[in-house]
Amino acid sequence: MKNFKNLMWGGAASVALLCACGGQQPAAQPELTKSGLNPADFDTTIAVAYDYEARKFVPDTVNQKPVKLYTLTNKNGMEVCITNFGGRIVSIMVPNREGELVDVCCGFDKVENYFPWNFETDFGCSVGRYANRIDQARFTLPGQDEPVQLDKNNNGIHSLHGGYTGWQYQVYDVADATDESITLKMVSPAGDNKFPGNVEATVNFTLTEDNAIVINYDATTDAVTPFNMTNHTYFNLSGDLNQTIDESVLQVNADYYTPADATYMPTGAVKAVEGTVFDFRAPKAIGTHFQDGDAEILAAGGGYDHNWVLNTKCNEAEVCATMTDPRSGIKLEMYTNEPGVQCYTANFQDGTRPGKNGIMYQKHCAICLESQKFPDSPNKYKMIGWELSDPYITPEKPYHSYCKYAFSVEE
C-alpha cells in the first residue's frame, strides 16, 4: 500500500528554478485517508504482555509483529480503514443526505493510542476468544468436573473480552488484502489467556458495492472450547463525532432481553421488553430513557450495556437492528446469524480521551452493536430461552459467525 505521494511544484520550470537557486525540493507529504488518517502513524512493530506481578500491561519484546493501516474502498467513494492491531475498524466514511462523506466511527488517529498502557480500549476491535463476560471468570467444559479458571480482568470479578491480552491487544496476521477486502488471521495456542484448545481463526472484512461492511468470522479447534467473536466498533451516525448518539433513533428486533446484575452479568432470566426501557421494537431516540432513573440503566453507568434476544433466531437475512440519525440522514441496518446483540452506549467515556482530530469523546459519544452469543453462555446456555446460545466449538463443529452493517441514507 502506498503511504506517500510527491507534490507537484509547477512542472519542470519550477524544479529548474529551485535547482538554479540552490534550493531543495520540498519533502514528500504523507498521503492521508479520506478520514484524515496518516498510514505512517500506524506503521510499527509491537506485542503486548501483561505483567501479573506488577498488574500492568508491558511491551513484549520477543513476539513482536508488524502493524499497518489498511484501506478498503468502493465505487461510491465509501472508505473503511482497518488496522491489524486488534483487528480494529479505525474509521468509516459514508455519505450523508447531502452526499458529503463523513466519519461515523469513533477511534484514534495513531496506533499508539490503542496500546493498553496508554488507553485500555476496545474501540473498533475484533474481540476473541470470548466476547463479553464470563461469570467469575470460570466455566466447566461439557463432560468435565473441574472448572476452567480464567483471569478476572473485569473489576476483579469476571472475565471480559477474552482476558487481559484478549485479541483486541494482539496483532492479527494479514492473510489477504485487496482494495475491497481484508482477511486477518489469529493462531491461538492452548492456554492463551487460560482458554483450552488450540484455535485458528480468521476475520474477513468486505466492503460491498452497496455500502455494506460484511464481517465473517471462522475458527477451528482441536479440543472443546468456548468461542464467541464480535466487532466492537463505536458508531456515531450524526456526522460529527463531537456529538452524542442520544438523538439517534434505534430499533431492535427483539421481544426479550437478558437482565443483568450490578456487575453487568446476566442473571440467567429472559425478560420481555414490553413496558421496560429496553423496548425498542418501535423506533425511538436512544437517549429517551437516560434520565428516567431506571435502576438497570443506572447500574450500567447511565446507559445501555445489555444483551437483546433477537427475534431473527439466527436468520442472517432478517434485519436485527436499525439506527438512523436525523441530523445526517444516515441509516445503519444490522444483520447477523447470532442469537443476540449487545447494545453499549459508551457510558464510561468522560471527555478525557483525545480521539481523531483532537475530539474528546464524551459520554454517549457512540453505540456499539455487537453480534454475539449471550454473555456468560458457557455457564447458562442450557437455561430456558438460551437454547440458541451454545458457545462451544469442537474439532467436529467449527465456528462461523456473520455480521453485516449496511449503510444508506434517509431523506
Task: Annotate the secondary structure layout.
Layout: E1 4-5, H1 11-20, E2 29-30, E3 44-46, E4 48-51, E5 56-59, E6 65-67, E7 69-73, E8 79-83, E9 88-95, E10 101-103, E11 105-106, E12 126-127, E13 133-134, E14 138-139, E15 148-149, E16 159-160, E17 173-177, E18 181-188, E19 199-207, E20 212-221, E21 225-226, E22 230-231, E23 234-235, E24 249-252, E25 256-258, E26 271-272, E27 284-285, H2 295-299, E28 305-309, E29 319-324, E30 330-336, E31 340-344, E32 368-372, H3 377-380, E33 392-393, E34 399-409
Antiparallel strand pairs: 1-2, 3-6, 4-5, 7-8, 8-9, 9-10, 11-23, 12-22, 13-16, 14-15, 17-18, 18-19, 19-20, 20-34, 21-33, 24-27, 24-29, 25-26, 25-28, 28-31, 29-30, 30-34, 31-32
Q: Would you give the CATH topology?
A: Beta-galactosidase, Chain A, domain 5
Q: Determine the strand fraction and express it as a percent band.
A: 25-35%
Reading off the top of the CATH hierarchy, the class is best stated as: Mainly Beta
Uncertain segments are: 1-21
Written overview of the protein:
There is one protein chain. Helix content is 5%, strand content 34%. It is mostly beta strands and 411 residues long. The protein has a single domain (39-409), classed as Distorted Sandwich (Beta-galactosidase, Chain A, domain 5). The longest helix has 10 residues, at 11-20. The protein starts with a strand and ends with a strand. The model is unreliable at 1-21 (pLDDT under 50).
